[in-house]
Automatic annotation (TrEMBL):
Domain of life: Bacteria
SMART domains per the UniProt record, alphabetical: Aldolase_II (SM01007)
Origin organism lineage: Bacteria, Pseudomonadati, Thermodesulfobacteriota, Desulfobacteria, Desulfobacterales
EC code(s) of this entry: 4.1.2.17
An annotated GO BP: pentose catabolic process
Keyword field: Lyase, Metal-binding
GO molecular function: L-fuculose-phosphate aldolase activity; metal ion binding
PANTHER family per UniProt: 3-OXO-TETRONATE 4-PHOSPHATE DECARBOXYLASE-RELATED, FUCULOSE PHOSPHATE ALDOLASE
Name of a matching Pfam family: Aldolase_II
Gene3D superfamilies: Class II aldolase/adducin N-terminal domain
Protein name: Fuculose phosphate aldolase
Length: 211
């Protein structure tokens, strides 16, 4: 448990330092056996200590912790229920991905690194107010069997087998979103087709297996 709390703190600080969130925005969690360890609500990453992480069961009941769980606990839990293959969820408000989400645009394969989301594009889920069951439902449906999803007028959710992977997905999708919007500002970007993306997705699957 201590190890997971340290990792949450490490990636939370990294996420903030990289500009993927501002203030107390965004949140991260990791699956720990039959429970989930998640960052606390309304607390700046720089002020957090490992003891501030909140352990909850799948009904959302607090098992351990001195703080309230992140307001987005609902979609974190829903994702773990829906996807037994994942053990970490990262939610950011990273600027380029959020800009795309505010346009209501999905992110196409403008760069092969979009494959970090395990699909040819990162779709955008419809808007619903933060912390709501409606948002959790949109997130599970939109995520499907992928690993990244834009949330309309809100931000980005990514997942992985561990926190490192979930964080990398968030970072790479943010990079591709930036490339796409800058390319769009100048002209019409060339989008990689399914034929070009299929071997990329295959390579990424193998690469992940090696880590
Ligand atoms: Zn958010």
């Amino acid at each position: 448990m201590e190890k997971e709390a340290d990792l949450l703190l490490h990636y939370g600080n990294k996420m903030h330092a990289a500009g993927l969130v501002t203030g107390s925005g965004g949140n991260l969690s990791v699956r720990v056996k039959d429970s989930v360890l998640i960052t606390p609500s309304a607390m700046a990453y720089g002020d957090m200590e490992p003891e501030d992480m909140v352990l909850v069961d799948f009904s959302g009941k607090i098992l351990r912790g001195r703080r309230a769980a992140s307001s987005e606990l609902g979609f974190h839990l829903a994702l773990y229920e829906a996807r037994k293959d994942i053990s970490a969820v990262v939610h950011t408000h990273s600027p380029w991905a959020t800009t795309l989400a505010c346009l209501g645009w999905s992110l196409p394969a403008v760069h092969y690194l979009v494959g970090y989301g395990e699909r040819n594009e990162v779709p955008v889920a419809p808007y619903a107010i933060f912390g709501s069951q409606e948002l959790a439902d949109h997130v599970v449906k939109g995520m499907g069997d992928g690993k990244a999803l834009l949330l309309a007028n809100h931000g980005l959710v990514s997942m992985g087998a561990d926190l490192r992977e979930a964080y990398e997905v968030a970072e790479e999708i943010e990079f591709v979103a930036g490339v796409y919007l800058r390319a769009k500002a100048v002209g019409e970007p060339v989008i990689l087709d399914e034929k070009a993306m299929a071997p990329v997705l295959e390579k990424f699957r193998k690469y992940r297996g090696l880590k």
